[in-house]
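Obj: model holo form, ligand = zinc ion.
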Amino acid sequence: MPELPEVETTRRGLAPHVEGRRVVAVTLRRPDLRWPIPGEVPTLLPGQRIDAVRRRAKYLLFDTAAGSALLHLGMSGSLRVLPAGTPVTTHDHVDFALEGKGRTPGRVLRFNDPRRFGCLLWQPPGETHELLRHLGPEPLAVGESDGRSAFDGDYLFALSRGRKAPVKNFLMDQRVVVGVGNIYAAEALFAAGVSPLRAAGRVSRERYALLADAVKRILAHAITRGGTTLRDFLAPDGAPGYFEQELSAYGRGGAPCPNCGRPLKQAWIGQRATVWCGHCQR
Ligand SMILES: [Zn+2]
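Output (holo structure tokens):
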């Protein structure tokens, strides 16, 4: 599943090829993805210039004067910028045909999604879509800043007081902070030396500062990695931005801890496999 780093990598890859271009036509090859595609997309978008491609959590926003197309890649979605006239293949559900510019010919921004958990929705100008309204702050000041609380240790500390849920669940709650998926939560908790099982309300301010820093560092690193897969402005094909061999905890249950060499523990928290070192993480 594309995580925040892959979505941000997609945004960075697309932006130079899409921003400033006018949408000349919208082709919907089916009426719905995860949800029905609202009528505004085919009626309001054609003729509009895409002023910016922004990201909020794992949503991409294509801003125009008439409103924003709001797109989520879901489990298996990808976006590609292709030469106009590129033949359609299976699961190519949506095309935004983009005007040529100067000597560059027209292009098509194409959304492919085999499993159709992605969505394409519409946000009128000056409004915030329902899906974006209750999201926590961005962990990184990249792509989008939401103007709400800064994400840091003090923020996590204040929000977590009295909470009994495991700190890993707290960190993965999109109302607390967006974009910290299972991989990145496991890695950040390992880097900060915090046990994923510890109650969120029982982590100190100092340790939340370490944890917030670890989240930022790990996500930023993953975005850098993702960037290398984006040559020819192709969206990453589901390959994680973080290379497997760089992971310290995630997916390594039973393997030696990179710090102390003791075997890493594995348990299920909710529906998710969780790996940690019982010695290094308290
Ligand atoms: Zn260890």
